[in-house]
Specification:
Length: about 180
């Protein structure tokens, strides 16, 4: 499996590929995850963060998981594009009261009119949270997720929050998230 359209290729280890196949099988049955994975990160994320968000979303969506994000640019757009290009679903929880600023890859845009308070909806929506990059909005989503007992996985984060699981690369992120999703 690899990234598309100019992003660097990510070779997935056999363990991750096998776990993605198991997740895809699970997602076809009655025990599937109905909640999406929340992929969170800054709207002005750099190339490394955006490539990682794309790769994680692409892999998970390819295995039948929907993703939810803040619906705008940067890491959110990269995750939405990854999910869309894998044939999956990307839901955006927007801060505005319309969808004018929604990224083009969303399957569903949900304008909330709540401003940054929408971060709570993003955090509550995910079965787990994948934080790639960091800023105050991402930190607020991570903190809420941890407060609500949700697994939070972090890559390229600025601040370490107690209880959040730090990972070093896309392969480790996918391995940790898949272990969480396949834990019955």
């Amino acid at each position: 499996m690899s990234l598309r359209e100019g992003a660097s290729a990510v070779a997935l280890p056999a363990q991750v590929t096998e776990a993605l196949a198991r997740l895809a099988q699970k997602q076809k049955g009655p025990q599937r995850h109905r909640q999406p994975v929340a992929i969170i990160g800054p709207g002005d994320g750099g190339a490394a963060e955006c490539e990682a968000a794309y790769a994680v979303a692409h892999a998970l969506a390819g295995a039948g998981m929907a993703v939810v994000c803040g619906g705008r640019g940067g890491v959110m757009a990269a995750a939405s594009r990854g999910a869309a290009e894998a044939g999956g679903i990307a839901v955006g929880i927007l801060p505005e009261d319309d969808d004018r600023n929604a990224n083009e890859w969303l399957s569903v845009a949900i304008p909330t009119g709540m401003g940054e308070m929408r971060n709570g909806i993003v955090a509550r929506s995910g079965v787990c949270l994948v934080a790639i990059g960091g800023n105050m909005g991402t930190l607020s989503e991570m903190a809420l997720g941890l407060k609500w007992g949700k697994p939070v996985f972090v890559m390229h984060g600025d601040v370490a929050l107690p209880g959040a699981v730090q990972v070093s690369d896309v392969n480790e992120m996918l391995a940790k998230v898949l272990a969480c999703l396949l834990d019955d």
